[in-house]
Amino acid sequence: MLSYIFAGMILVSLIFAAVSGNMAALSSSALDSATEAVTLLVKMCGGLCMWSGVMAIAKDAGLTEKLSRLFSPMLKKLFPDLDESSDAFSYISMNISANLLGLGNAATPLGISAMKELRKSSRDDIATDSMVTFVVMNTASIQILPTTVAVLRRSYGSTSPFDVIFCVWISSALALMVGLCVAKLGNRFLMRN
Amino acid sequence: MIGAVVLYGVIKKVNVFESFRNGAKEGLMTLYAIAPVMIGLLLAVGMVRASGALDFLTEKLRPLFEKLGYPTELVPMALLRPVSGSGATALLTDIYERFGADSFLAKCASVLAGSTETTFYAVTMYYGAVNIKNIRHTLFAALAADVTAMVMCVVTVSLLMS
């Protein structure tokens, strides 16, 4: 699936560049993007190690269990095949709390840890129901305060950059619900294999 | 937050530096796992943007959006948003600059930016990190959420802010 997306994107861009004569721009952008990706990775590296380290302390100190308990009623409904005391469960709840607070840099390593735990219950390379639900949650935005947008708006002269907050809440809640409903329907009706 | 966690660890008599060291090592391993995925993904996204395929798609879809009463100025950003976070941010600032940060369009664009994430990035990174090849209906569900946000950003701003 990912192979198809990757190959499809490259094929489409090759065809378009050939038709519109953008070939030179295309090859230079390919190299630029690869370089940019490494720059991004280097930038992420410090944060990733730091948050992974801090979260390891939180886990060893029993903090994450407390957090899990807070979210467990909701998460039990969303991930019916997960055990409440499992590591996957606590990583998912930590990922969600980091997302709510807008700590993207913290949410990503936690999310990957959650995926690694979920991976243990799957013997093949097909996504499990819980993986689908979890990834869909992470493709929707559940940030309480859209700070990046607000900072940008203020720098372009907005007088009240947070005035859209209600619209953001309604819009993102509905988007999340639609995503989760489609994921759940797929889980029920599209069997694995 | 970091201070609070470390302090809590010390109080609970955890070997905090040992824990941190193990966690940070895990972080490095994660980076090692996602690096090739990220390079591949950003490479493909960069190529699609440079080829002009996205501009072409926007142009083709414009009449359709006009018929639906959807503000066409938002279309490029709405289409780029699931694919490229930085690209969508660039288009967002472009909207602020052209129409003013407190205009109707700027508000719609802000809501759209605030209620979506970079879908393709999350999907490829999370699945790539654990080597899952068949993602089933994940992308479909995620894009359904994006379309909802695309519609809702205009609906909510029209109903609640004017």
The assigned structural class of chain B equals: mainly alpha
* SS content category of chain A: mainly alpha
Query: Poorly predicted ranges of chain B (pLDDT <50, ≥5 residues)?
Result: none
Distance between the termini of chain B: 39 Å
Helix content of chain A: over 70%
Largest interface, and how many residues on either side? A-B, 100 and 95 residues
Shape of chain A: globular
Question: What radius of gyration of chain A results from the CA coordinates?
Answer: 20 Å
Residue stretches of chain A low in confidence (pLDDT < 50, at least 5 long) are none
Distinct helical segment count of chain B = 8
**What characteristic shape of chain B results from the CA principal axes?**
globular
Give me the count of strands of chain B.
0
- SSE arrangement of chain A, N to C: HHHHHHHH
Number of domains of chain B: 1
SSE string of chain B: HHHHHHHH
Largest beta-sheet details of chain A: none
Quaternary class: heterodimer
How would you explain this protein's 3D organization?
The complex is a heterodimer of chains A (193) and B (162). Chain A has eight helices and no strands. With 193 residues, chain A is mainly α. Chain A has two domains: 1-61; 66-193, no CATH class. Chain B has 162 residues and is mostly helical. Chain B is 79% helix and 0% strand. At the A-B interface, helix 1, helix 2, helix 5, helix 6 and helix 7 of A face helix 1, helix 2, helix 5, helix 6 and helix 7 of B.
